[in-house]
Amino acid sequence: MHKAALIGIVVKLILGSLNYFAGKAMNSTCDYPLWGVAAPDSDSKCPPGQTPFHKPFFVTFCTFLSLSFCMVIFVFFRKKKCDPAPYKDKMNYLRMAIPATAESIAYCMSITAQAIMALSLSMIMKGGKVIFSAIFTVVLFKKPLPWFKWFGVLACIVGLAIAGLSEIMKATQSKESVTMILVGLGLSVGAEALFAFQVIFDERMMKVRKCDQTFCIGMEGIFGTLIVLIVLLLSWLAIGGHQDESYENLADTFYRIGRSGLIIGLLCYYFIGMFLHAIADATITKYLSGVHSSLVSVGRTVVVWIMELIFYYTLPAPYGLLYGQGWSSPWSYVKIIGFAIVVSSIFVYDGSLRIPGFDYSTVDASKKKQEEDKMASIELVKPNEPTVDVQDEQKGHTQ
Question: What is the spatial distance between Cα 31 and Cα 259, in angstroms, rounded to a whole number?
Fold first, then answer.
């Protein structure tokens, strides 16, 4: 495995988990709103009169603003080392508006979903990216997939359905809002479809059009920042809602940030964490594939789930309830089964876990080519063996 890809996997696994917790913690932090005491809400976990921060558009705006700084890295450090041809084509700059639009919508949907359902379930739903990655690989790359990959896609659908059903049954048992769980599941699946499109589009830009990963991230960040800024202003000034007659009141956002050191700290971390995570994600996609990126995303579920349990059982009230998720028998066991099927399906899709009866010749040929390329690169960097000067050798014989 390429060294850069391995570093990317480690960084994404760690920072990706922490980033999701930072986003959820921000959205779950309670305080009195700018307009005074809030009306009672039976679904809220906040103390009476308070409401959660819950600013999906603002958090998404911060995400893309942090990604846009990758353009600084590209211009000052990477561009001079890259082939200049892709950057002379002005259309490559405009093309990046397509994945930026998909990603900005996906982030808004994903952050909203995380705020209304268990974060561990939201992370399991990231396995859906494999399903849509397979579809977009066929559509965008025009590459037919072998049958074992479609078997992995089918298994992934089954695993996601089991995990989602466990959360629905748990909500029914505890008399929570099943409707909100269904909304969260729908938002998560829709977000993963858009994320998958964005990842495959980026893979095409990096592998086919030879664009650097920092260029792709930076342009997506710039376009995404502009798109979400427009949405953020509309949600404040033109779209009605429960935040003082606005869907997302920006004045209330800055009011709460000024009152909460926790939110300020989480925001500072979020800027840095999302920036590094995006570079790691793009590096995995460039040197491996979009599906490998999806595999790492699902692998973070274990980290997130453990952290949820730790927070729930160790933090004092009401923080344990706000930031954690308790163990629910028997539905947590059902969720584990769904998660295990999702992880197994990704290994089946990748060809690492083989099912008898399927043809894996394409996987074996790909691995053989990778080994040959690796050996060829080793041969190129071998030190030259010492040579004997012919004239000196002849002189030696004469003597």
Answer: 9
